[in-house]
Amino acid sequence: MPYAEINGLRLYYEEHGSGPPLVILHGGLLTIELCFGSMVLALAARHRVIALELQGHGRTADIDRPMSFPHLASDVIGLLDHMGLEQADVFGFSLGGLTTYQLLIDHPTRVRRAVIASADHRNDRGGEIDPDRLPTADDFAAMRDSYAAVAPDPGHFDVFARRASEMVRDCPGWSDEQLRGVEVPVLIVIGDTDFILVPNAAEAVELLPRSQLAVLPGTTHIGVTRSELLVPILEGFLNEP
């Protein structure tokens, strides 16, 4: 599979299928395989799926550069430029969803339609998260194992995980005014037992001028990309006229 030299990164990416280009962005501490599993092939039946691993994740080595959402969004745009693509649909989950928000703010003309799953546009909610809604110890063990299986430096996991967590913690989020200025059609997706709460997702939908909300029943945060409901919902949204 190919790599692209982007902004000082040796960025790993994969292509599957043919059709309109669809960039998929994984969650934090996840690889393409662990995040999306069989979704990639299901989406590739109708799309040219472009799956990449963001800074420090999976096969893309970390570099001596601040880890920030503006940088991650710039890396995605750099890959589109590398591939000669002026515009693409984007589906981002969790950390990938936060990166998608940044793409919509910084590079709106490069995104045709966006799906943001399990990511909150605000970072000032406060309060405790129900532990039952969080990834389990087994989930975290799978993250570590999947990283170790493919990363250029398997021993870097703890450093990288801390940096990624700090990036999410320090992200200021995006203002109401910024979201009101997004003209791209956006689908917000969460699980009904996600740690991104339904009222918070509904708030984003109220702000985004051309948006929809999908709440997956019986679905936790980590279960969103594993739900059999997700691909049909994505296809319905992406194929709207």
Describe this structure in words.
With 241 residues, the protein is α/β, with parallel strands linked by helices. The chain has a single domain, classed as Alpha/Beta hydrolase fold, catalytic domain (Rossmann fold, 3-Layer(aba) Sandwich). Helices cover 37% and strands 22% of the residues. The chain is built from nine helices and eight strands. It has an eight-stranded mixed beta sheet, sandwiched between helices. The model has no long low-confidence stretch (mean pLDDT 97).
Key traits:
9 helices; 241 residues; eight-stranded mixed β-sheet; Rossmann fold
Q: Tally of extended strands?
A: 8
Please tally the helical runs, counting DSSP H or I stretches of 4 or more residues. Answer: 9
Q: Quick one: CATH superfamily?
A: Alpha/Beta hydrolase fold, catalytic domain
User: How much helicity do the residues have?
Assistant: 25-40%
Question: Shape, please?
Answer: globular
- Order of strands, main sheet, comes to 1-2-4-3-5-6-7-8
Strand content: 15-25%
State the CATH architecture: 3-Layer(aba) Sandwich
What is the secondary structure topology, with strand pairs?
Layout: E1 3-6, E2 9-16, E3 21-25, H1 32-36, H2 39-44, E4 48-53, H3 69-83, E5 88-93, H4 95-106, E6 111-117, H5 137-150, H6 157-170, H7 176-180, E7 186-193, H8 198-207, E8 211-220, H9 230-238
Parallel strand pairs: 3-4, 3-5, 5-6, 6-7, 7-8
Antiparallel strand pairs: 1-2, 2-4
Care to give the gist of this entry?
This protein is α/β, with parallel strands linked by helices and 241 residues long. It has helices at residues 32-36, 39-44, 69-83, 95-106, 137-150, 157-170, 176-180, 198-207, 230-238; strands at 3-6, 9-16, 21-25, 48-53, 88-93, 111-117, 186-193, 211-220.
